[in-house]
Structures are given as structure tokens and as C-alpha cells.
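Catalogue entry: protein
Contents: sequence, C-alpha cells
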Amino acid sequence: MSIPNKINAEHVQSSIEEINKNGIPRNRTFDRYFLLISEKKYPVKYVISLASKYTDNNSGALAPNVFNTYQAQKYLTNLGFNIIDKYDNTETTNEGFKLLNLRIVNNKLLGTINYSFINQEDTQNKIYSTVIIGPNGTGKSNLFRIIIELFRELHSQSLGGARFYNVDGRFDLEFSINNDIYSYTNLIDENIAAKFTIAGEVAQVFLLKNGEIIEFGDAQFPLAIVANSIMLTDKFPVLNNDAEKFPIYKYLGVRNTPQNASTRSYVRRTVDYIVSEKDSNAFRSGLSKVTEFLGINNSIEVYYLTINAPTFFKGETSLETFRKYFSDLEEKYKGKEYPPQKLNVYQRLVKEEGVIKSLSDFCNRLFSEGRLQKNRKGSSIKKIAYNLVEESSFQLLKKEAELLDHLRAIGLLYAPEISLNQSGEYNLQESSSGEYHFFSSMVALMATVKMNSLIFLDEPEVSLHPNWQMKYLSFLRSLFSDENYNTCHILVATHSHFLISDLEGDNSKIIGLKKVNNSKDGNNIQVVDLPRNVDTYGWSAEDVLYNVFDVLTVRNKYIADEIGGILDLLSKGQPNEVNRLPSNKYQLLLHLKDNLKDIDPLKQVVMSILKKVE
């Protein structure tokens, strides 16, 4: 179902008259497009919804989930009405990439729900942050997975591939790239859909650009989609084989397959990200910010430990050394079903011209240049170290990274480690869980986030001290303060009220999720947008609990301030208004009476005020 073609200008005029009489509901205001009549502004979708009531069908107001804003503004334009884009000729635009909206209908996990990810009035001169906060069971992680799967599906179709059908139900994913608005959707007018076919069959899913259907091959994407989590149970896709190739997607998590996780693999990936970073100066500057935040010395070392050093790291390694070692290994496993992986890798590298000779020369060079450090007394294991703070050492790691990885793959080096220096050197895996997760996450983000990136952070507060949580988003803004990152959009899923006390209001949005029992529409999750004019920056944890979660804590200063304001109102009233309050303040007192704990002394104050005003 979509906009009935029987709606005409008279029906629209009747809709306008109804709006003039009854006003516009809070949940039906406009975000971008509006109908302008006699200098009054009317939301295009709400106008169409009401206009449907006045057609011959008399079927009532049209539900907002069966058509989109662009269909509404185009329909009204065709009827001759003046539709205004409030961002025309203004400085506030969705520069770069922004995720705008996701409407989900009849999804098995999320039900029917609409998420609006940005405030259109916000400035776009900094990286934009959307924080989605709510208790367990409100679908935050599944929401992130669905968004990524929809982009992956669209990417596949843009290359002529098939849909994956990993998202059930109906959907409309809306995003902007440099002010062009794209919508990937299967929520579209059946009459329009019938005009488009794929392989002779009516299309089931569409891509729109600024309200017009376009070919999938014309799709635009964020330059990178980055998914970060340190939880074993994150729901981000882990893509491994060629059939799942999605090159703009980077998974920065602890799982190395959909079913398995490894902290050692996570560290190795972190080193890979360090090596792949092209702008070493900016990267090392970011590393300095990370170490300063953690309160550790500005010393970060990547190191590798040798295996079989007496054979390969004594300065006498040759092609024959490699041939004999792996021939003996092959003989040992002859006839066995599963030879070691390092043998398979060696046999592949032998076929690549010059690779084994390069590895032999590298082993000898490490010895002759005195770069093989003692690891511990009495051990033959040697250490190959690179100090990331020093530019020359950083560049040397990048230059030798492929050789090091080959040696690791054929079993002559252990997987890399990262050492930090606080009150004595220790490796990353020996650090506190908070340090480990924070450092690894930030390094991975610095190496993968580009301009026009979409970044997902799932519960970054895990293992972080509350003080670090309260500084987390501020640190991210500092880390990505370069103007190239102004075009990025960060989505954070969290349980932590500490996290949003550091959120700046002019380039961020908070979306609250609540569980709802026995809802009329059958949906168990409710979206609660925090009003834009409420800026949480600098709030205490109590302020956040009261304003966002509606949790009343004992001796909450914010509540005390509210009650103080009511007492002030009463004291300043005129003689004929003694003991009278505005309705909203009275309702607040009733709410506090019902929800404050009996042990809270503020409850007694509330009860005393109510006795007076009642």
C-alpha cells in the first residue's frame, strides 16, 4: 500500500483545515520538507495522511509506515503545492556520510519500529555521534547487525550480485552522502514496483536517490563501515570467505570466525592495522593521545619472539637451511591426514620466486645488525622489537611486516605482542582488561576509520572505569578532531548512563530504548528520543538517570533542584494564587510522590507541598 492516487488538491485543502483546527501532533512534525501555505508550515507526510480521510474511499488517515517523505513531497508537488526543503540555501547540511533513518516493519527481532539517527538542526562541523541507550533485550546489537547486513546486501546488488535475505520483514534504510539522500527499501507503492523487473520478475527491493528510483549500480556507500566490539557475544557479521567479500566493511572484534574468538588473534589484527596505516605522523600522534589517556608512558612496542633460534637466527641461515628443516618436517608427517599448516604455507611460498631467499637474508640481517634481543636469561628465544613512538622504528616495522608475517606463518616466529610501559614494561595481554580493550579498540579505529565512515561501537564501556566512561566520547572527538573526520557518523550502543554525560548536544543525538509490556501495537520495544534542546554535556550520572532513564535515586541533586524551583514558584505567587501551581509542575510532584523511595527525605518535602496545593 502507498499514497492513493485518488487524493486531489481539495482533499489536501481539507487536510490543511483540519490541521489549522487541531494542530500537529508531536510525533508528526517535519524533519526536512514542509508544505508552505500563507507563511504556515505543514509536514508533508501528515498532510497526506489526513488527506486520505477525505477521499471517496473514506478509509481513515493513511498510516505513516506505508509511504515515505519523498513520495509525499513529490505527490504534493505534482498537485501544484509549494514544497520547501528547509536546508536549501542554509549552511546546515548533511555533509559527507550520515545515517538518517531506519524503518523496520514486522521484523522477527525488532517488530515494527522507526529509528531516526540525527537531528537535522544539528551542526555538521564535527564528527556526529548517535548514542543508543537502553537495557538488555531492547535490540541494540541486533539493530547494528541489521544495518550492516542491509548495506552488505545493497553492495552485493550494486555489483550485480544477489540479495542475501538476512533481514526479514519490511525495511527502509535512509542515508545521505554529500546531501544526496538514498533509500534502500522494500516499503514502496505496489503500482510503482510493478513497473520494475529483474530477470523478468517484478522487483522486490529498490534503491531511491532523492525520491527517484535508480539502478543498484548507481549506489553510493560510506568509504568504510567499521564495527568495533570487545565482547565475545557481539552480533556483528564476521566475514571470511570470498563469497562474503564486502571490502568496505571492517570487523574490529575478538571473534576470528563466527563461532570462535581469540585474544591473540585480536592483538595480531591490531598489529596488522598499525602496519597498514599510511599516515604515520597522524597515527603516532593518536597513539600519544591514547597513552596519555591511559596514564602510561609514551612508549609502545610491537615485538616478535623467535622459534628455533639456534637454527634460523644465528647468522648462518641459507636456502638449504629452510629446505632441510621442512623436508624433515614433511617426512615426519608423511602419510598423515592433517600435516601442520606451517608446512603447507612453506610449500606455497617455495613456489613464489625469491620469497624464501628474502626470508633467509632477513634472518641473517637481524643477527648481523644486533637486533635480536635476549628475552629472558637462559632461554634461546630472541626478541625482535619495534618502538612505535620513534618514526624510524615505526617505518621499519611497516617495511618488514610482510617478512615477519611469512616467518610467523611458517612457524619461525610467535604471533606479535604489544608492550606498554607504565611502572615497568608489560605486554598488552597482561594489562588490565580496561587498558587492553581501550588501547586495542583505539588503535584499530585509528587505522580503519576514513572520511565518510560509518562507525559502530557496541558497548564500549565494558571493562572501563566509570571515570573513563565519562571521558570516552570526549576522547573520541579529540582523537578524530581532524576535519577529514567531520564527515563521519558514529553509532554507540550502551547500557552506561556515564557515557552520555559527556555528549555535546549540537552534533549528537540520544535514542533511548524501553521495554514495553502489553503495548497496543504488539511491539515490545519503544523508541524515546531525548529532546534536542536537552544538552547532556557535563551532566552528572544522577542527572542522566533522572532525565533519560527516569530513575529517581536517593538525594538526587537534580530532583532537589526541581523541588526547589517549585517552592520558589509558590513563594513568589500573588496572594490570590497561593498554593497554586502550573499543571506540569503538579504532575511532576505526583510522579515524584509515586516513585521516590520512602527513605528519601525529598519525598517528605514532596508530600508536604502536595498537602498545601491540594
Summary: The mean pLDDT is 81. The CA atoms of residues 428 and 436 lie 6 Å apart. The longest strand covers residues 97-107. The radius of gyration is 30 Å.
